[in-house]
Amino acid sequence: MCGIVGYIGEKNACPILIEGLRRLEYRGYDSAGIAVLSGDKIDVKKATGKLAALESAIESCAPEGKIGVGHTRWATHGRPSDENAHPHTDCIGNLVVVHNGIIENYLRLKEELIGKGHEFSSETDTEVIAHLVEEAYNGDLVEAVRKAALMLEGSFAFVVMSSDKPDLLVAARRHSPLVVGIGSGENFLASDIPAFLPFTKKVYFVDDDMIVALDRSSASFMTLDGKSVEKELFEVTWNAEMAERGGYEHFMLKEIHEQPVALRETMRGRMSSENSKITLEGIGLTDEDIRRINKAVVVACGTAYHAALAGRYMLESLARIPVEMDVASELRYREPVIDDRTLALVITQSGETADTLAAMREAKRRGAKTLAIVNAVGSSAAREADGVLYTYAGPEIAVASTKAYTTQMMVIALITLYFGRIRGTISPDRDAELRRRLWSIPEQVDLFLSDYEAVINIAEKYHNIGGFMYIGRGPNLASALEGALKIKEIAYIHAEGYAAGEMKHGPIAMIDPNMATVAFATAGRTYEKLISNIQEIKARSGDIIAIAGRRDEIINNYADHIIRVPETDEMLSPIINAIPLQLLAYYVAKFRGHEIDKPRNLAKSVTVE
Ligand code: M6R
User: From CA 433, how far away is CA 113, in angstroms rounded?
Assistant: First the structure.
């Protein structure tokens, strides 16, 4: 849940570390800190709050040196404070550690270390790493880090720098992301690739239980039991510009606008025209495996879970696979009925969400085949699943997920049609019709994004409303839940997402002039029923904001405001309907003056349970 960065090279490390942290700030922003080796002394600077606080703190006294580490924190153990901010040091300040993850056995280790005379200066779990390395250090830093890592339980990606090793950074990883960037005469370590994208695109993905030794010209890898390992160097296609805001006021708005491209990229190589057959390289399932599946279990959290909820309707009706839904944090503790005919459909933008990974491992342990829909290449979910289908949305920096969501639904649609053909559960005509519709989606999203003045006007009118109700039916129940999540997440207005038919079983009591309802009223088999649900709300003085098809005239009689979207098949409509719900949340938050990309109390990637 934190961001770590390390630099070793010929340049001044401080600005490179700060720039890396700026690109990792989405991972947490309770405090930030850097440590740079200046001469033979490690200079540590920390500040509570966002990175800007650290930048002000070092304005007139930035540490100088060519090797250093940095950290941006999302607090787990110990409140946000300067003392608890990383980097943490050993007793005498000869070595520093930055860490992402949770050391589950830190209390026991801390007691043992205190018993041996170590003095602690923070409440964090991380500090035990610094003292463990100090305890094991006899001049061989790699060996000391290896010995320390062997004693840790929980999750970690950490980097250690020692004042007597001016040409060495040592890192270790288990269950928390860590990547190595290989430059020319300089090398990098980070939680995520954008941290060093301005400097290099050459990347090593570090595996679990692996140690990295990094000097200016090389990286070497070994397992925790000391065996050296050869790793494959990857060249990423993202450029630094792609990870920047590209002229938009916020990353979220930029990412909303990137959806036509992201959706096209996600189809690329899998469908080459509206008539082409779908191919899914990397799926990790034979045709026989696909025919044998008798149940799919969804493993996902938050927005990714909503993508699955929309996809469930497709998978059930077109591939005839029963889909069991539960958020990952519940699924893993529920003794789910899973066997070797179960497909665990793992959906995660980051590929590092702790609950999702744990539930995926549990499903695998029970014999399920795991298929991951992931955005972050080389992430834990991507490496551990039996099959991987990437979403190719590019880096998603805003905490509120947008393009990951629509591309996840796109991949589920591709999987459904692929499965449906192999299982013989979809008629050739329906298959052809849906492929044609799917092919048009990026263009339709583009069309919507070319004019959404209506959304901005509605956001302005309602940005001080007491609450929002989001209602939908069928696949658009997912739109309702996602709409409510987005508003809560960035606008901090209470919102509920409901199956429209459930309103009269309780929530309709909440309707009054201070509660506006967003109704997903695009064409579908329950359209008339939804209109009745809308009328019930209107009769109780609730305003209705309808998201409806361009040609729908019926809705004019019932809605106070209408956001018109391009028409598509009901199964695919949540992809298009996502755009207005994202924009509505964005503009409501903007009119309320919120800091949209980094909403309070949240972090982009939830790598703790
Ligand atoms: O990286 P993941 O897709 O696994 O993340 C799952 C959720 O944490 C994420 O979708 C979260 O709900 C978003 N911030 C919502 O916008």
Answer: 66
H or E segment at 396?
none
**Is residue 381 lining ligand 1, measured as CB closer than 6 Å?**
no
Whose CA is closest to atom 10 on ligand 1? 303
Residue 61 is among the residues annotated as catalytic for this protein = no
Q: How many CB atoms are closer than 10 A to CB 98?
A: 32
68 lines ligand 1 (CB under 6 A): no
- Active site includes 2? yes
Is there an atom of ligand 1 within 6 Å of 348 CB? yes
- Is residue 517 lining ligand 1, measured as CB closer than 6 Å? no
pTM of the model: 0.78
pLDDT per position as a tens digit, 361-374: 999 999 999 999 99
Q: What CA–CA distance (Å, rounded) separates 308 from 292?
A: 21
Q: What count of other Cβ atoms lies within 10 Å of the Cβ of residue 292?
A: 14
Cα(368) to centroid(ligand 1), Å: 23
Please count the CA atoms within 13 angstroms of the CA of 75 that sit on its side-chain side: 18
φ, ψ (nearest 5 deg) of residue 465: -65, 155
Q: Is 433 helix (H, G, I), strand (E, B) or coil?
A: helix
> Rounded to the nearest whole angstrom, what is the distance from the C-alpha of residue 352 to the centroid of ligand 1?
10
Residue 399 near ligand 1, beta carbon < 6 Å: yes
Ligand 1: centre distance to CA 141 (Å): 37
In ligand 1, the atom with minimum distance to the C-alpha of 350 is: 1
The pLDDT of 143-152, averaged and rounded, is 98
Helix, strand or coil, per DSSP, at residue 563: strand
- State if residue 489 touches ligand 1 by the CB under 6 angstroms criterion: yes
Point out the catalytic residue in the list 46, 254, 598, 604: 604
Q: Tokens in use for 375? A: 């955005």
Amino acid symbol at 592:
R
Provide the Cα torsion 538, 544, 550, 555; round to 10°.
0
Q: Which of 303, 485, 598 to mutate to test the pocket of ligand 1 (most atoms within 8 A of CB)?
A: 303
Q: How do residues 449-506 score in pLDDT, each as one tens digit?
A: 999 999 999 999 999 999 999 999 999 999 999 999 999 999 999 999 999 999 889 9
Q: Residues with Cβ < 8 Å from 175, sequence gap 6 or more?
A: 101, 154, 155, 156, 208, 354, 357, 380, 607
User: Are 454 and 564 contacting, i.e. CB atoms less than 8 angstroms apart?
Assistant: yes
> Mean pLDDT, to the nearest integer, of 117-129?
96
Report which of 512, 564, 489, 68 is spatially closest to residue 306, judged by C-alpha positions. 489
> Long-range contacts for 112-121 (Cβ within 8 Å, ≥24 apart)?
118/90, 118/91, 119/91, 121/83, 121/88, 121/89
* Helix residue spans in 170-286 (DSSP H): 251-257, 259-267
CA 70/CA 149 separation, integer angstroms: 20
CB of 402 shorter than 6 A to ligand 1: no
